[in-house]
């Protein structure tokens, strides 16, 4: 199958050559091009574990799993690969202690070069990166192959059923740990044997931890939260709305919703976090057009205090959203209100939920479908279908403190109940690893249980 696939890939390269030239030669990925062909991979490793995630989201999912491997198998080399340039950048930042490489082109001779240099005994792939030559060559090399947090959408299932290639690939996998029974049914229909498949839950829940130790007090009385709100210029009685990861038009919808909430309660305040910081000046302009004072986060400092509830704070800096949710009384998570594509939808709902912040979201949540279903089933989140519903729900919740508290409490319970998938996957992976690593390297000294993740995140 390798030669046939190589020929098919080469034909595809000819057809897509203009895009490939831009993506890998003229684009930001050009500096990693040689490595994708198996050059400059660094010194040869012995008996490593190779972990792969496609983009930044999948790479981040590996964080608690890698922490467990570092704890229990400190002598085993770890290799992390990513396909996208953003995923590679995230891996280099998160896992600087380990060998970080771009995913090789899925040509059999290139994959074999990677395998010879890295000598993996276990290959761990996140979610749905079913590269045929990578999986097939790894199995022939003698490595075990495991998929963690596995998923398959209805659209992908229909495509793979028609084409038949991926079902053949899936039958070579040693372990397929999937998120839900629904995904398991699709994989089973494609021929994955029951004894190689486990339903272990969604690892995304395990990424979500409070930014400070969990408090037995209600969120509104939490000292760390009050301190953060004070830094941002908010009084304890202010009602802070945070719009997180907002895409085009969503900022306008939230600004209009805020205007309605402000008319209902003048203690309402707003923080807007665009998905892309470069969009912040345009968001600031639209806020000013509506008559609001607006301040960019980068402008706040000793000479210019934060606006508090007298103005809108627009965040044009990176990496602050999780922290800002801790100051919120209500959150709207973007990327979900308007259709952006069949495979695009939603952002991390669990960040505000774990903090007991009531969360609103739109109907387009492809990326967090199971989380949305869990929140709605528990009456722990509010789905709004358009701008009018968003404005009505924000205004209603700003006036209804008991409802806000109950939504937040239930949302936090949903996230906590969903945690533990990483620990379950890890125990399964250890069994595969135990049979393939040299005995001296598999010196497992468990000082804490596998599900004790908080201290390493």
* CATH class call of the largest domain: Alpha Beta
Give helix % range: 40-55%
Query: What is the radius of gyration?
Result: 24 Å
CATH superfamily of the largest domain: Glycogen Phosphorylase B
Strand arrangement across the biggest beta sheet: 3-2-1-4-5-6-7
The secondary-structure class comes to alpha/beta
Protein model, in words:
The structure is a single chain. This protein has 457 residues and is α/β, with parallel strands linked by helices. The chain contains 20 helices and 14 strands. Strands 3-2-1-4-5-6-7 form a seven-stranded parallel sheet, with helices on both faces. The protein has a seven-stranded parallel sheet with strand order 10-11-9-8-12-13-14. Helix 7 packs across helix 8 and helix 13 runs parallel beside helix 18. The longest helix has 18 residues, at 401-418. The chain is elongated, with a radius of gyration of 24 Å. The model is unreliable at 213-221 (pLDDT under 50).
Secondary structure layout:
Elements: H1 2-15, H2 17-26, H3 33-36, E1 48-53, H4 56-61, H5 63-72, E2 78-82, H6 85-94, E3 99-102, H7 108-118, E4 120-126, H8 132-141, E5 144-150, H9 154-163, H10 165-170, E6 175-178, H11 181-189, E7 197-199, H12 223-231, E8 239-246, H13 250-264, E9 268-274, H14 280-289, E10 294-296, E11 312-314, H15 321-325, E12 330-333, H16 350-354, E13 359-361, H17 369-377, E14 382-383, H18 387-399, H19 401-418, H20 421-434
Parallel strand pairs: 1-2, 1-4, 2-3, 4-5, 5-6, 6-7, 8-9, 8-12, 9-11, 10-11, 12-13, 13-14
Helix pairs in contact: 7-8, 13-18
């Amino acid at each position: 199958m390798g030669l046939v696939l190589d020929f098919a890939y080469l034909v595809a390269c000819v057809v897509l050559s203009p895009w490939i030239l831009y993506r890998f030669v003229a684009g930001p990925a050009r500096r990693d091009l040689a490595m994708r062909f198996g050059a400059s991979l660094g010194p040869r490793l012995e008996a490593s574990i190779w972990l792969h995630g496609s983009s930044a989201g999948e790479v981040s999912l590996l964080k608690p799993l890698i922490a467990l491997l570092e704890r229990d198998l400190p002598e085993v080399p770890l290799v992390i690969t990513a396909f996208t340039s953003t995923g590679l950048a995230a891996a280099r930042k998160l896992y600087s202690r380990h060998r970080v490489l771009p995913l090789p082109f899925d040509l059999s001779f290139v994959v074999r070069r990677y395998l010879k240099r890295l000598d993996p005994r276990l290959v761990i792939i996140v979610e749905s990166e079913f590269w045929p030559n990578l999986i097939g060559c790894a199995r022939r090399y003698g490595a075990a192959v495991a998929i963690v947090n596995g998923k398959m959408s209805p659209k992908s299932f229909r495509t793979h059923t028609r084409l038949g290639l991926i079902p053949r690939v899936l039958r070579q996998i040693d372990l397929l740990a999937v998120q839900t029974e629904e995904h398991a049914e699709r994989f089973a229909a494609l021929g994955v044997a029951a004894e190689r498949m486990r339903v272990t839950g969604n690892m995304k829940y395990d990424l979500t931890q409070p930014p400070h130790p969990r408090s037995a007090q209600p969120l509104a009385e939490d000292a760390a939260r009050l301190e953060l709100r004070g830094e941002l210029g908010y009084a304890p009685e202010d009602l802070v709305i945070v719009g997180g990861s907002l895409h085009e038009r969503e900022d306008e919808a939230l600004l209009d919703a805020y205007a309605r909430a402000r008319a209902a309660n003048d203690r309402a305040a707003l923080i807007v976090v665009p998905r892309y910081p470069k969009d912040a000046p345009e968001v600031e302009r639209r806020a000013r057009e509506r008559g609001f004072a607006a301040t960019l986060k980068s402008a706040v400092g000793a000479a210019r205090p934060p606006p508090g509830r007298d103005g809108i704070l627009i965040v044009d800096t990176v990496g602050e959203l999780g922290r800002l949710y801790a100051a919120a009384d209500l959150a709207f998570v973007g990327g979900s209100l308007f259709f952006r594509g069949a495979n695009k939808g939603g952002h991390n709902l669990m960040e505000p939920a774990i903090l007991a912040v009531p969360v609103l979201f739109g109907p387009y949540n492809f990326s967090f479908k199971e989380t949305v279903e869990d929140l709605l089933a528990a009456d722990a989140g509010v789905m709004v279908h358009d701008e009018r519903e968003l404005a009505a729900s924000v205004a209603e919740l700003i006036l209804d403190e008991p409802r806000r508290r109950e939504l937040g409490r239930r949302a936090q319970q949903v996230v906590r109940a969903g945690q533990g998938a990483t620990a379950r996957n890890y125990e399964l992976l250890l069994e595969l690893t135990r049979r393939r690593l040299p005995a001296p390297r598999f010196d497992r000294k468990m000082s804490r249980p596998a599900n004790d993740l908080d201290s390493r995140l």
